[in-house]
Amino acid sequence: MKVVLEHLTKIFPSRNKKSNEQVVAVNDFTFEIPDGKLIGLLGPSGCGKSTTLYMISGLQKPTGGKIFFGEDDVTELTPENRGVGLVFQNYALYPHMTVKQNILFPLQNLKGEDKLTKTVMLERAYEAARLVQIDDLMDRKPHELSGGQQQRVAIARALVKMPRVLLLDEPLSNLDARLRLQTREEIKRIQRETGITTVFVTHDQEEAMSISDMIVVMRLGVLQQIGAPQEVYDNPVNLFVAKFLGTPPINVFEGVVKGEKLYIGEQAVLDVKGAADQEVYVGIRPEGFITNPEGEFTTNLINVEVMGRDVSIVSKHPNAVSETIRSIVDADSAIDRDATTVSFSLKPHKVFLFSKETEQRIPFEVK
Ligand code: ATP
User: Fold this and answer.
1) pTM, two decimal places
2) Which residues pair with 32 in a beta bridge?
3) Burial (0-12, 13-18, 19+ Cβ within 10 Å), 114
4) Sign of torsion, CA 137 134 144 57?
5) Are residues 91 and 119 in the same domain?
6) Does one domain contain both 274 and 217?
7) 11 with 206: CB under 8 angstroms?
8) Cα 46 to ligand 1 centroid, rounded to whole Å
9) pLDDT tens sequence across 56-76
10) Taking the CB of the first residue and of the last residue of the chain, which one, N or C, has fewer CB atoms within 10 A?
11) Could you list the residue range(s) of the whole structural domain that residue 135 is in?
C-alpha cells in the first residue's frame, strides 16, 4: 500500500495567550512512500516527525493537505478505519490482560466478514509473538515483563491485525543496547516478510540508516531530503543533512574556493573544478582522509586511537568549525604517533562544499 502525503501541514495554535506565535510542526510536506517499503522519518527533537506520523495514523488532523493510502483519500478517516498498526515509545498495554489477551484483543474486535475463528486468531497471535520472541511469555501480565518485553508485545499487537500501514514511533527507545540491535533487525525482517508499508520515526540516524529502504530527513517541520540511506549519506543536499548523518560526524571547516582550488587556511587541499570563487563550508567525512606524508592537508595531531580494524586520528586545525577533527584510516596506515602534525590526501568524493550563505551544497567535478 503506497502512502502519499500532499502538502501536509500541521500548525499548533499558540499556548501563550499574550503571544500569537503558532508552531508550524509540519510545513507543506509532500512525498510518496512506495508500497512495501520501510521508511525512516529522521530528524532532531521537535522537527515534526511524530506529528507527521500521527497525521498518517489519523490521531491528529492536518491543518492542510491530504493523505492517501493507495488511491484512497484517508484524510478524514478515523484511525480505526485506516487500517494502521501503531507502536509508540511508551505504548500502554492492558494491565489486567495477559500477553496473549493483549495480542488477541485487536482481532477479537473484528466485525462482519473480517471476523476470524478462534483457532485462526490464536495462530496469528502466536505467529506475531514468535516474530518478536515473546511466545514463551504469553501467560504473563504486563507488570511481569521488562520494558523491552512490553514493547515487543506492543509490536506483536500492532502486527497481528495485518495492517495496511505500520507506524512505529521511536519503538526501540526503551530497549537496552543489545535488544535494540536485535529488535531493529527483527523489525526489518518482519517488514520484509509481511511486505507491510512501514514508517519508522527515530532521531537516531544510525538506526534509521541501518533498517530503512528510504530515509526522510526533516528539520523544523521542513523536509530536507529523501533517498536511500547511502545515497543521502553520499550526496547530502545541505550542511544540515551532511552533519546529521554519520558516526563519527562529518568534519566541517571554513574554506575558500579560488581558481577552482579549495583552500583550507593557506593550504590548497583539493581541485574543485566547476565551483565558483567564494567562501564555503567544507565537509569532510571521517573516512575521506588518507594518511600521506606528502599530502596536501596538514593538521595538528592530538591523539591516535586504535579500534581494531580502523585507526581514528584526532587532530586540530584552526579552520575547523568543531574543536577536533576525526579521521578514520586503515589500521595498516603508517602514522608517526610522536609527531606534532599529520598530513593527509583527501578522497574527493568524501569532500562536500556548502554555500556559506545558504548552506546548500555546491557541486564540483570529482575526477
Ligand atoms: P521528538 O523527537 O522530540 O518527539 P518530533 O520530531 O517528533 O520530536 P513533534 O513531536 O512532531 O517533533 O513536534 C514538532 C513541533 O510541534 C515541536 O516544536 C513541538 O513542540 C510542537 N508540538 C507538538 N505537539 C504539539 C501540541 N499538541 N501543541 C503545541 N505544539 C505541539
Assistant:
1) 0.89
2) 4
3) exposed
4) negative
5) yes
6) no
7) no
8) 5
9) 999 999 999 999 999 999 999
10) C
11) 3-240
